[in-house]
């Protein structure tokens, strides 16, 4: 029977009109029970598949035409060839069937893009399955209870839509590229009955976007997620005298009932419109999202040389396939890539080498800390030392320590290179992998500095030469300033502990970002530096033997660090909402002549700037660069005079060169013309309205502490409107600003330029 003819239709989508190129006026009917049972029997009898009977029933329920899947399950020929799709990865061969499946049968799997963030709902525990020595093509997702499952499904869809949406494309053309799908057993720690269903592992954005299309343009991501989670997890009610069905079946019947309602709504609308009449846009949206294409994993074969546990072969093979798409061809963002590569590499090392090294328990604990399965309070247990404070910063210190010790460091780099298909991995590349693992405990709370912090890790992070090459052990303490004296006396353990802890604090709080060229200045200014150097070089200089200024700076930075908020001196620009109020904490400049080594201007502590940090890392070099820069002024002034405010340099006592924001009075020009009274009134009204807007943003900022979604300024459409309005306001104000010399700049968006850096042991040879 040929497909019914269709013709393009135009439907509204917000302010736009979308042309739907192929609108079918007939939806597929529910599948036949006999066809589903035949598929289950064929799958169980196939020698190249590996699923439980419940998993086969989940596959059969999902397919719109089970008989087409059954045809793909015909027994293989004598030469071993079959109709199953095969993908070969390191250590395994994955086998799948291609099918069209009901949208309402697919659950969202764990989403790497959102899992690397700190969200309200934890990911479930993932457990592989095997029968004897044969791996199975399914996983177990272990949740605390059913509410945890519901919340996780809702959060995954909601957070995915906030990051990206293909709704317009799907409305116009439907989902055209197959999702990668496999069966999962949802089990619950509270003893509730388990559920078997299909989850999407690749194509979660397409899955969420399809639900967005079905829900309509005006719905928020949270509304869409609630609709989808309700459709997926609402069981059909049973009459009191009906035999009790398993929970999996009741949920499946609930989803079937949901589809039948959509089918009836669609059919009634098409019938009312007639053969060629216009239908409501809701009807078109149902048609475009009712079914989606999928590759359903049904079998996995471990190769003889595979070193993984049998139960982990399927999960690793699937992650390898996903990485080949999202790391090499169509990337996730860099932090999601790094989390995926680093945690997968660490898991491989734990399973293949930990027992050989006699470190199985320790490395399993390190893996659990790195992935967030263990909280920072578990650090003393993992490293078997009750002296270790169970804080986020000490979690970070011990993870850096563990992941940079031989032989784990070398093995991890080798595994990561294999996963990324890279020939070399420099120290900067390895540090970049560690960044999103280290910041797990404060991602949400320090979200405003996250991008700059990860730039700093990609620029070497805290992996200076001494941290990587010296034999050292962290020194647990509640007072980092107590480590300075032993460090100055030659204690490498204390010195490297300060380098890692203080360096992490400076990076997380945006006081070290990356090697930026145009931010060089001979004067002390926030957001500027006296010379260019990689982040790892700066931290190595601060922790250099005998550098009292640098070691005290690291100690105070580590001691003052707070994981739940940002400091007041995080950048050149004041933090929103802090005008006229005390900041939660501040990093401080150093004065070695003071009893507590804290520099002060009068009675107030002097706030630390990036300029101070870089200066303290190599004072001799900084002084030399300042002298060279000042000599450039001689031709312009006709003498060797220094620019205003540059007399004096910060020596060991931390004397200020020039306060941030202070500038020369030269070149100010004539006074501006006095405005008319009307302009004055309107300007004051504008200032009042902007202050009210700032107060609203402050409230939003407070409400958003500890959350990565929903975005504080709404979904894409809302954010776009706000942004356009804000840009118009900013442009007008900027265009009408008074002339001024050298406005302050963070320099964070400037192009990175070459500077002094540490040699990488695997850097390519010069051509």
Describe the 3D structure:
Strands 3, 4, 5, 6, 7, 8, 9 and 10 form an eight-stranded mixed sheet that branches. Strands 1-2 form a two-stranded antiparallel sheet. The longest helix has 27 residues, at 247-273. 43% of the residues are buried. The radius of gyration is 30 Å and the shape is globular. The model is unreliable at 572-581, 633-676, 739-755 and 758-767 (pLDDT under 50). Helix 21 (492-508) packs across helix 23 (548-560). A hairpin with a 2-residue loop joins strand 6 (125-131) and strand 7. It is an alpha/beta fold. It is built from 28 helices and twelve strands.
Produce the secondary structure layout.
Blueprint: E1 7-13, E2 16-23, H1 33-45, H2 53-62, H3 66-72, E3 85-89, E4 92-102, E5 106-108, H4 112-115, E6 125-131, E7 134-143, H5 146-163, H6 167-173, E8 179-188, E9 195-202, H7 204-215, H8 221-233, H9 247-273, H10 281-289, E10 291-302, H11 313-329, H12 334-357, H13 360-371, H14 379-382, H15 392-403, H16 408-420, H17 427-438, H18 450-458, H19 465-469, H20 484-488, H21 492-508, H22 535-542, H23 548-560, E11 600-601, E12 604-605, H24 610-617, H25 619-631, H26 634-637, H27 677-703, H28 716-735
Parallel strand pairs: 5-9, 7-8, 8-10
Antiparallel strand pairs: 1-2, 3-4, 4-10, 6-7, 8-9, 11-12
Helix pairs in contact: 1-2, 1-3, 5-7, 5-8, 6-7, 6-10, 7-8, 7-10, 9-10, 11-12, 12-13, 12-16, 12-17, 15-21, 17-18, 21-23, 22-24, 24-25
């Amino acid at each position: 029977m040929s497909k019914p003819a269709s013709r393009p239709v135009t439907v509204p989508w917000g302010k736009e009109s979308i042309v739907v190129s192929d609108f079918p006026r007939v939806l597929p009917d529910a599948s036949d029970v006999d066809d589903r049972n035949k598929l289950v029997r064929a799958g169980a009898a196939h020698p190249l598949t590996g699923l439980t009977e419940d998993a086969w029933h989940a596959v059969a329920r999902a397919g719109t035409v089970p008989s087409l899947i059954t045809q793909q399950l015909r027994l293989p020929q004598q030469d071993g060839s079959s109709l199953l799709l095969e993908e070969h990865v390191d250590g395994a061969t994955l086998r799948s069937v291609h099918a069209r499946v009901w949208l309402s049968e697919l659950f969202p799997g764990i989403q790497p893009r959102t899992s690397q963030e700190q969200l309200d709902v934890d990911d479930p525990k993932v457990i592989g399955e095997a029968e004897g020595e044969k791996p199975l093509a399914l996983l177990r997702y272990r949740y605390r209870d059913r509410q945890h499952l519901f919340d996780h499904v809702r959060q995954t869809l909601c957070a995915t839509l906030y990051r990206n949406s293909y709704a317009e494309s799907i409305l116009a053309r439907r989902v055209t590229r197959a999702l990668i799908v496999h069966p999962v057993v949802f089990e619950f720690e509270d003893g509730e009955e388990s559920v078997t269903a299909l989850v999407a592992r690749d194509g979660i954005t397409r899955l969420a976007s399809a639900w967005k299309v079905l829900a309509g343009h005006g719905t928020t991501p949270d509304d869409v997620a609630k609709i989808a989670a309700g459709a997926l997890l609402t069981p059909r009610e049973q009459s009191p005298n009906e035999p009790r069905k398993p929970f999996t079946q009741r949920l499946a019947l609930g989803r079937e009932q949901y589809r039948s309602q959509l089918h009836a709504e669609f059919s009634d609308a098409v019938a009312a419109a007639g053969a060629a009449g216009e239908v409501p846009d809701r009807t078109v949206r149902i048609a475009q999202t009712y079914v989606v294409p999928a590759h359903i994993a049904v079998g996995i074969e471990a190769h003889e040389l595979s070193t993984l546990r049998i139960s982990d072969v399927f999960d690793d093979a699937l992650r390898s396939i996903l990485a080949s798409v999202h790391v090499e061809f169509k990337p996730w963002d860099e932090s999601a890539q790094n989390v995926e590569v680093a945690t997968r590499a660490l898991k491989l090392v734990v399973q293949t080498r930990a027992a050989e090294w006699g470190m199985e328990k320790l490395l399993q604990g390190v893996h659990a800390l790195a992935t967030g399965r263990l909280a920072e309070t578990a650090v003393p247990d993992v490293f078997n030392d009750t002296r270790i404070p169970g804080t986020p910063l000490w979690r970070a210190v011990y993870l850096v320590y563990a992941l940079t010790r031989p032989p784990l460091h070398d093995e991890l780099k080798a595994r990561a290179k294999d996963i990324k298909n890279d020939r070399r991995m420099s120290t900067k590349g390895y540090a970049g992998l560690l960044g999103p693992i280290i910041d797990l405990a404060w991602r949400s709370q320090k979200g405003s500095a996250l991008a700059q912090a990860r730039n700093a890790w990609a620029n070497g992070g805290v992996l200076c030469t001494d941290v990587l090459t010296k034999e050292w052990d962290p020194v647990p303490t509640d007072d980092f300033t107590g480590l300075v004296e032993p460090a100055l006396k030659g204690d490498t353990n204390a010195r490297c502990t300060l380098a890692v802890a203080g360096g992490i604090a400076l990076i997380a709080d945006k006081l070290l970002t990356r090697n930026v060229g145009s931010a060089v200045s001979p004067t002390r200014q926030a957001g500027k530096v006296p010379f260019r150097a990689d982040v790892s070089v700066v931290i190595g200089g601060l922790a250099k033997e005998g550098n009292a200024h640098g070691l005290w700076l690291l100690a105070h930075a580590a001691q003052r660090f707070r994981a739940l908020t940002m400091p007041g001196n995080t950048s050149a620009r004041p933090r929103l909402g802090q005008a006229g109020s005390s900041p939660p904490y501040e990093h401080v400049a150093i004065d070695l002549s003071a009893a507590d080594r804290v520099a002060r201007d009068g009675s107030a502590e002097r706030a630390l700037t990036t300029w101070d940090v870089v200066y303290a890392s190599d004072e001799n070099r900084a002084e030399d660069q300042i002298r060279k820069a000042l000599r450039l002024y001689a031709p312009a002034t006709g003498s060797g005079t220094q620019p205003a405010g540059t007399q004096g340099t910060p020596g060991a006592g931390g004397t200020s060169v020039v306060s941030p924001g202070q500038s020369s009075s030269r070149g100010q020009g004539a006074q501006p013309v006095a405005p008319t009274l009307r302009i004055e009134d309107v300007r004051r009204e504008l200032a009042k309205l902007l202050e009210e807007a700032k107060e609203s943003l402050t409230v939003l900022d407070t409400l958003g502490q500890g959350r990565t979604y929903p975005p504080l300024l709404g979904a894409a459409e809302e954010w776009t409107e706000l942004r356009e309005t804000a840009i118009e306001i900013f442009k007008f104000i900027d265009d009408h600003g008074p002339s001024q010399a050298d406005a302050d700049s963070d320099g964070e968006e400037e192009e990175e330029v070459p500077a002094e850096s540490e040699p990488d042991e695997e850097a390519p040879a010069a051509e």
